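Saturday, quiet lab. Running sequence design on the structure tokens for the scaffold JK sent over.
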């Protein structure tokens, strides 16, 4: 199992590669699996699995990987193993013992500087010949990264890998440095639905305010729960490209794949998200057990019909164990309020037919009002719908921007027309596009991180070609 040396090459695929010898350090197909994020004090603790293909190399005994927050990356020379001072800002130090009999193991100490904290709680799995072109597929699990800052922002990581033949681990034979990835972005959500044939409910999100083009590929797991795309795990579907950003994620509740109509289909499905703008992929495993979707909303709309009334309409295509719908509204910063409840029309709470609902809310508020549905099932479990917003009584115009002017760089936009797909762009006074959203189907949009100045918001309705322009002013506090 000396092939683990190839882990060194992980850096080669991410950035600058440096070698002290002519040893093979080729790595490809790096992928990040996000297990969890937890806020602890002022840090975000992120747990990931890291997978990669590694070409065979029988020469090296030990391998070390060091990871830093990108802003703290020191760019070491590797004329010798890093010192404790040089590793002071790392968020993970992972050592691999590659000369033991059997599979490689994680080291519990860092011999060049024993005071350096070492992560040894994860595992290593190796699929010999299971990578692209006959390389070996490696996965290091449960890498825990404590990154300063919020879990609601991108956690950028930069790392180095070096290896040695020396039993004392006091010399560097080969190193790669400067590879980088984002530990928590983009993210994948979803599950297998209990439909016949089977489908997936899939969501792809990013914290980035800049547009990110993404694609997804689906693989049927071969039963071992190890990410081995194209070899042990066979491709069964794909989709994209899609453009997403922090306010416009990708969502599809009916993703199909090859073999999904096999009776009793029970394979786990790997979802792999890639982007031409990223040097790595992210992956998630949708377990073999399917999950019923209690209520599948086809649409949910809200519209002010007169000065004192807002009409809500929604439609379901499927309901399982449903009890009904709680209607909630938010005016200003008063908090969400329950304004009504509509019982399900489904017989005994179950239906696979289209059902239509409506509710009228007596609302003469002069401020913007937001609405959402809380779908409740018989067991009191619940799920929220998307949010819809309506103008206040007396507010005119098909597009409403508030607050305008803005004093904190944030503004909300409400589209009075509830139907249609919109392409939206925001330009500054020089005509430069500073933000852009494509395929917007929600009737509200949030804009943030604007610097003081004057902006133009252009909205184009795809179905009709109709264009509207609104001015936005951002002032200093």
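Result came back. Writing it out in full:
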């Amino acid at each position: 199992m000396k092939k683990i040396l190839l882990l060194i090459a992980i850096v080669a695929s991410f950035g600058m590669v440096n070698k002290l010898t002519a040893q093979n350090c080729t790595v490809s197909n790096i992928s990040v699996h996000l297990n969890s994020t937890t806020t602890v004090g002022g840090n975000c603790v992120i747990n990931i699995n890291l997978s990669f293909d590694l070409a065979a190399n029988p020469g090296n005994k030990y391998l070390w990987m060091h990871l830093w927050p990108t802003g703290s990356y020191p760019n070491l020379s590797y004329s010798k193993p890093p010192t404790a001072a040089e590793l002071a800002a790392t968020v993970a130090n992972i050592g691999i013992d590659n000369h033991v009999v059997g599979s490689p193991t994680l080291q519990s100490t860092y011999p060049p500087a024993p005071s350096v904290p070492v992560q040894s709680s994860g595992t290593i799995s190796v699929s010999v010949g299971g990578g692209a072109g006959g390389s070996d597929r490696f996965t290091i699990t449960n890498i825990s990264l404590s990154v300063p800052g919020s879990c609601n922002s991108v956690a950028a990581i930069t790392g180095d890998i070096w290896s040695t033949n020396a039993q004392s681990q006091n010399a560097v034979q080969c190193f790669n440095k400067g590879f980088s990835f984002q530990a928590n972005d983009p993210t994948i959500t979803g599950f297998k639905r209990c439909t016949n044939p089977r489908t997936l409910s899939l969501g792809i999100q990013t914290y980035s305010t800049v547009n990110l083009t993404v694609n997804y590929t689906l693989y049927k797991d071969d039963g071992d729960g190890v990410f081995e795309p194209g070899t042990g795990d066979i491709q069964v579907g794909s989709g994209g490209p899609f453009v997403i950003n922090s306010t416009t994620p990708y969502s599809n509740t009916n993703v199909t794949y090859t073999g999904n109509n096999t009776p009793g289909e029970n394979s786990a499905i790997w979802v792999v998200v890639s982007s031409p703008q990223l040097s790595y992929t992210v992956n998630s495993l949708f377990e073999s057990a399917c999950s019923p979707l209690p209520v599948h909303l086809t649409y949910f709309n809200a519209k002010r019909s007169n000065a004192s009334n807002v009409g809500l309409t929604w439609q379901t295509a499927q309901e399982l164990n449903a009890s009904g719908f709680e209607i909630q509204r938010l005016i200003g910063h008063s908090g969400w309020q329950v304004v009504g409840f509509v019982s399900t029309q489904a017989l005994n709470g179950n239906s696979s037919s289209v059902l239509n609902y409506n509710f009228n809310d007596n609302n003469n508020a002069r401020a913007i009002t937001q609405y959402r549905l809380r779908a409740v099932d018989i067991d009191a479990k619940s799920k929220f719908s998307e949010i819809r917003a309506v103008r206040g009584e007396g507010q005119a115009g098909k597009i409403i921007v508030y607050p305008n002017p803005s004093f904190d760089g944030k503004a909300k936009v409400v589209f009075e027309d509830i139907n249609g797909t919109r392409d939206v762009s925001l330009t500054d006074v020089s005509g430069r596009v500073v933000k852009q959203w494509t395929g917007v189907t929600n009737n509200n949009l949030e804009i943030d991180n604007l610097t003081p100045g004057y902006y133009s918001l252009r909205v184009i309705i795809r179905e009709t070609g109709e264009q509207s322009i609104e001015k936005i002013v951002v002032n200093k506090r």
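Notes for JK: Residues 2-182 form one domain. The chain has four domains: 2-182, 187-286, 295-390, 399-474. Ask whether to fix the surface positions before the next round.
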